[in-house]
Amino acid sequence: MTQLAASAAELPLGDRSFDIVLASDVLEHIPPPVRMKVISEALRVADKLVIFGFPCGKEAHDSDRALRQEYLDNNLKVPEWLEEHMEADFPEPSLFGNLHGWKVEQFSNESLGFHKWMMKREMNRLFVRVTGRISRSLPGLTEKLLRNRDGNPSYRQIFVLTRI
């Protein structure tokens, strides 16, 4: 694997350079006026498939705003990723509405209730250590448990784009 530092809005790569492009938890950190350019660049460098996953919509953003306040109320340092989440509204599904030449499928991922519950637990270092060990020791069981926590309303959406 070769490391590359570049702007997601201007990738220094040729068209269709990769079979698959995956952008997980990226779009919510991109300023809204630049998001379509980032999506376009991912589509340009992908030959077959692009997958985007991100916290999506107002309910998810409100949930993170409440989580940030809980950190502050408990005199805890707010994680950098959470501070970044407060800088702009989360992306909406409408970003993927008019993509010519691509089939778009959307899947809910991580129910909003489970996300709220898990984020509160992650404020506890012991919880993080124990669950980290369990997930590394029993990845199959962890995946099954997490799959059961998908649902609506959801915190995150997964968009699978296939070139037509």
Task: Describe it.
One of its GO terms (molecular function) is S-adenosylmethionine-dependent methyltransferase activity. Its EC number is 2.1.-.-. It holds the Pfam family Methyltransf_11. Keywords: Methyltransferase, Transferase. It is an enzyme of class 2 (transferase). With 164 residues, the chain is of the alpha+beta class. It has one domain. It is built from six helices and four strands. The protein has helices spanning 35-45, 57-73, 80-85, 112-121, 125-137, 139-147, and strands at residues 18-24, 46-55, 102-111, 154-163. It has a four-stranded mixed β-sheet with strand order 1-2-4-3. It is globular. The model has no long low-confidence stretch (mean pLDDT 93).
Topology (SSEs and partners):
Layout: E1 18-24, H1 35-45, E2 46-55, H2 57-73, H3 80-85, E3 102-111, H4 112-121, H5 125-137, H6 139-147, E4 154-163
Parallel strand pairs: 1-2
Antiparallel strand pairs: 2-4, 3-4
